[in-house]
Amino acid sequence: xVPQYSSSRENYLKAIFHLQEVHxxxxxxxxxxxxxxxxxxxxxxxxxxxxxxxxxxxxxxGFKLSTEGRKVAxxxxxxxxxxxxxxxxxxxxxxxxxxxIAEELEHIxxxxxxxxxxxxxxxxxTDPHGDPIPDSQGRWxxxxxxxxxxxxxxxxxxxxxxxxxxxEILELLNHKHIGLGTRLEVKKKFAFDxxxxxxxxxxxxxxxxxxxxxxxxxxxxxx
Amino acid sequence: xVPQYSSSRENYLKAIFHLQEVHxxxxxxxxxxxxxxxxxxxxxxxxxxxxxxxxxxxxxxGFKLSTEGRKVAxxxxxxxxxxxxxxxxxxxxxxxxxxxIAEELEHIxxxxxxxxxxxxxxxxxTDPHGDPIPDSQGRWxxxxxxxxxxxxxxxxxxxxxxxxxxxEILELLNHKHIGLGTRLEVKKKFAFDxxxxxxxxxxxxxxxxxxxxxxxxxxxxxx
DNA sequence: AATAAAATTTAGACAAATCTAAAAAATAAA
DNA sequence: TTTATTTTTTAGATTTGTCTAAATTTTATT
Lengths: 223, 223
Ligand SMILES: [Mn+2]
Ligand SMILES: [Mn+2]
Ligand SMILES: [Mn+2]
Ligand SMILES: [Mn+2]
Known about the structure:
alpha+beta, 6-stranded antiparallel sheet, DNA binding (chains A, B), SH3 type barrels, DNA-binding, Transcriptional regulator MntR (chains A, B), manganese (chains A, B), 8 strands
């Protein structure tokens, strides 16, 4: 039997993993705000994760996932993203309504379940938000992407990922018909507020703020 | 937002519902043994369920589900059985390996998820064990389910469940081309050893022993 | 270097779900 | 109808995860 961890512990591992990826480093306060909880609760949990050897931690000095902790985090992320893919591709959910549900489904234990699901879905490489899905060994293919602020004007590109994945930004993008795989190009950048005008084929131009642009990643053939 | 109950409470509701269905009545000890827990823990939980108006309970006098408790129990059962159907029909699990996983999946909250799943599966009426799946209003179609010993002669019926689920009986039934969904009728009952002769369309008659007949359940429309 | 501010941890509490041991009530047997 | 047995409930603990308030440590500012 594979060791099982509580949903709460799995959520902490996942949060720590994400923060480690973005900044190189994580703090107690970072985790507290990511998890919508109190710093004192984070400290409590850090001790428990350390006791389970999922975390390297010395009080006041900082912490990071152990090799085992990282492995567990990647499996939760794998489950989260496969379930999101399932919800969108098989149950016709919108990409902006699957995160909450996947947040629960990711804690279902069976390894066989998730490997069968992966197979059923045809071994998808990325989830509905463009994020890579780790394989059953916890590996993923790194795709390099640029955010829209850094996409050259008039360069055709394809949306390949979203940074911030709040329901709010997804709703906004949805409304403007911007989604994974959307082909677009930047027509104008306004220096005043760094807003950007985009053109999607067969649509009238749309404008997005700097805040949004920073969170939309695209890939394009750079010759 | 629909009220949410803990997995533990949902499991208790389900257990109480099942015991109510089988016997007309449930006791603290029944629940304890069904849930693999202690009578004292059951009493603790009965008080909590009563406080939430899911249970009608007076100490030492007995208890039963309230209308609301029954409704909740039926929704958990609906989810359990739909997930079992999904696991068998879509992920190619054996019918003998899905129960444990469904025991976890049944606690996922989203109502939309389960209704979409139902639709995706084509609104199945029974789970892989032949048990009826309640619809989204908690209703199920009452089809008379009897074992083959009690099926009237010449009454067309459909195999809807197997009692004993050992590999041995499954092998025997498999050999005789009897499985879930098989349409058949009883042509003759032999008083000598209670063996039974069956007819399946386009096949020559087959005989099964009393022991086998007792473990094959069928349903038929009772007019 | 001394002080102020911020981050982190500890102390002590609470709710949920479970347990063991003991008490109380209901039921069965004598 | 007493007495014995079984069932059910209570009392008091324990574990997990969370919280507030206070103490401690680190970091930033004079
Ligand atoms: Mn989660
Ligand atoms: Mn995602
Ligand atoms: Mn369950
Ligand atoms: Mn079943």
